[in-house]
Amino acid sequence: MAIERTLSIIKPDAVAKNVIGQIYSRFEAAGLKVVAARMAHLSRAEAEGFYAVHKARPFFNDLVEFMISGPVMIQALEGENAIAKNRELMGATNPKEAAAGTIRADFAESIDANAVHGSDAPETAANEIAYFFPASQVFSR
Ligand code: RTP
Ligand code: MG
C-alpha cells in the first residue's frame, strides 16, 4: 500500500478540551507519523481560504466562525494509506453518526464543533499541506 501524507487539524473545540495528546496517541497507535505541526489561531482570511471549496454551502459562515473561535493544532500525518486511515480514525462528520471509538464519537459535540479535520483525497491533501507548511517544514521519516 502507498505511503501517503494527509493534513489534519485539531479544531478549536478539541484544543479547548485539552485532548491534543489523546488525539496524537490515536494517530501514533494507527501507524501515522506527525511529520509537520504547528499551533495557530487562524485569521478569517486563512479559514475562508482553507474551506474555499465549501464557499457556496449554507454552513460556510458558521464553519469559518467556528474555525476562528480559538487556536487549532495543525499537522501533516504520514503513513500507509494515511488519508483513508485518518478519516477512519476521525469517524463521520456528524458525531451522532460516528462509529464508537472514533475521535468524533469520543470528543466531538456537534456537526460544527466536530473536533478534527482530515483531507479527503490525495490532491486535496497535497494542497492543504502546502497551504499551511512550506516544504522545508515537513519532515518525512
Ligand atoms: P472536514 O473537512 O472538517 O474534515 O470534515 P468532513 O470532510 O467530514 O466534512 P465536509 O463535508 O468537508 O464539511 C466540512 C465541515 O463543515 C461542517 N459541516 N456542517 N451543518 C452541516 O450540514 C455541515 N456539513 C458540514 C462540519 O464541521 C465539517 O467538518
Ligand atoms: Mg472535508
TrEMBL record:
Localisation: Cytoplasm
Catalytic activity line of the entry: a ribonucleoside 5'-diphosphate + ATP = a ribonucleoside 5'-triphosphate + ADP; a 2'-deoxyribonucleoside 5'-diphosphate + ATP = a 2'-deoxyribonucleoside 5'-triphosphate + ADP
Gene assigned in the entry: ndk
Superkingdom: Bacteria
SMART domains: NDK
Family annotation (SUPFAM superfamilies): Nucleoside diphosphate kinase, NDK (SSF54919)
EC number: 2.7.4.6
UniProt entry keywords in alphabetical sequence: ATP-binding, Cytoplasm, Kinase, Magnesium, Metal-binding, Nucleotide metabolism, Nucleotide-binding, Phosphoprotein, Transferase
Gene3D superfamilies assigned: Nucleoside diphosphate kinase-like domain
Cofactor: Mg(2+)
Pfam families recorded: NDK (PF00334)
Quaternary state and interactors: Homotetramer.
Active site residues of this protein: H117 (pros-phosphohistidine intermediate)
Protein name: Nucleoside diphosphate kinase
Every Nucleoside diphosphate kinase-like domain range: 3-140
Function description: Major role in the synthesis of nucleoside triphosphates other than ATP. The ATP gamma phosphate is transferred to the NDP beta phosphate via a ping-pong mechanism, using a phosphorylated active-site intermediate.
Binding residues annotated for ATP, in chain numbering: K11, F59, R87, T93, R104, N114
